[in-house]
Design a protein that fits this description.
about 325 residues; mainly alpha
Length: about 325
């Protein structure tokens, strides 16, 4: 408890964990283990947090932290029988290269998810939609022009373009903020993909030279239209993101006009420092806080010290403590 009061949260988690294991019959043990799991999750020690949630039979907390810890093998066996269970298993399968099975599970998750989700659950739903798009886009990208069947190959590509674009419009309708930017970025990439497809097309051998030139001229004109659509979409992404003050990997992708391919996993990654780092400054501030645990100046200084150490998760917890002391 003194460790909590002095904002030494990782030490507190260790003490709670030790007590719960050593005195498991104590009525306080379960509550302390839960506090330990929460602190470990908030400070970025996701593997240990998952272990503690598992001991508490908290399946949601267990699977959530397995995802954060990127323990795909165990996450693929998540026993939660809800839309989030399908989501977590789908993410795990995809991370292990089983894209077809993962896509089915994510599709199931998007269909089962309740309306009006917010916060992290909305992020999971939007990420599921985007992962489905990424798998479909890879398939779309593999469709090449067939000079032996020029019209059917263009029709097949266009049909897939329209299907994926409709799904992206659905993403825009479900969410806002960074996921709206994600849908616009993806739509721009979809247009660039069709432009590239048309420019790579070679006229059938059966055409005369004049006909072949006309064939290529017609495809170039269509390609230019897709390029203009892509540029307009990327610019809209930038304008809307600037208005809403959104800064994300997708916005960067839009600013590069599609020259950078964005992986949506970067949007879901939580940057933390899971290992405790103690500089001399941090140690000195801790000692002072043991004597004066409600000293606002010491709390702010300790938070700054953790920011310098790039331990942002701990800095956030300490600022929360400072807010409790002086709201």
């Amino acid at each position: 408890k003194m460790a909590v009061l002095s904002s030494d949260y990782r030490r507190a988690a260790f003490a709670f964990d030790f007590y719960a294991l050593t005195f498991s019959d104590d009525p306080q043990a379960r509550g302390l283990l839960y506090q330990s799991a929460q602190i470990l999750e908030q400070t970025g020690d996701f593997a240990k947090a998952a272990s503690n949630y598992g001991r508490l039979d908290d399946i949601d907390g267990y699977c959530r932290n397995l995802e954060l810890a990127k323990d795909w093998s165990r996450l693929s066996q998540c026993a939660l029988q809800t839309w989030k269970g399908d989501y977590w298993r789908g993410v795990a399968f995809i991370a292990q290269g089983q894209k077809a099975e993962g896509r089915k599970l994510l599709q199931s998750a998007t269909q089962k998810a309740p309306p009006s989700l917010t916060g992290p659950d909305l992020d999971r739903l939007m990420y599921a939609h985007y992962q489905i798009y990424q798998i479909d886009f890879d398939e779309y990208d593999q469709l090449k022009f067939d000079p032996k069947a020029p019209l059917p190959s263009i029709q097949n590509k266009k049909a897939m373009f329209e299907r994926i674009n409709a799904a992206l419009n659905g993403i825009s309708g479900l969410g806002s903020g960074r996921w709206a930017a994600a849908a616009l970025y993806a739509s721009g990439m979809l247009n660039l993909g069709f432009e590239s497809f048309l420019l790579s097309a070679q006229p059938p051998d059966s055409l005369k030279q004049s006909q072949a030139e006309q064939f290529k001229k017609g495809l170039r004109a269509q390609a230019e239209e897709f390029h203009r659509n892509a540029e307009a979409t990327f610019n809209r992404c930038l304008q809307e993101s600037e208005k809403a003050r959104i800064f994300s990997h997708f916005v960067r992708g839009c600013s590069k006009m599609g020259k950078v391919r964005v992986d949506a996993t970067a949007e879901m990654e939580i940057k933390t420092a899971s290992a405790e780092f103690r500089s001399g400054e941090i140690n000195e501030l801790r000692k002072k806080l043991y004597r004066s645990p409600r000293d606002l100046g010491l709390l702010l200084a300790l938070s700054d010290a953790h920011v310098k150490a790039k331990d942002f998760a701990m800095a956030r917890l300490i600022l929360n403590r400072a807010h409790e002391v002086a709201p």
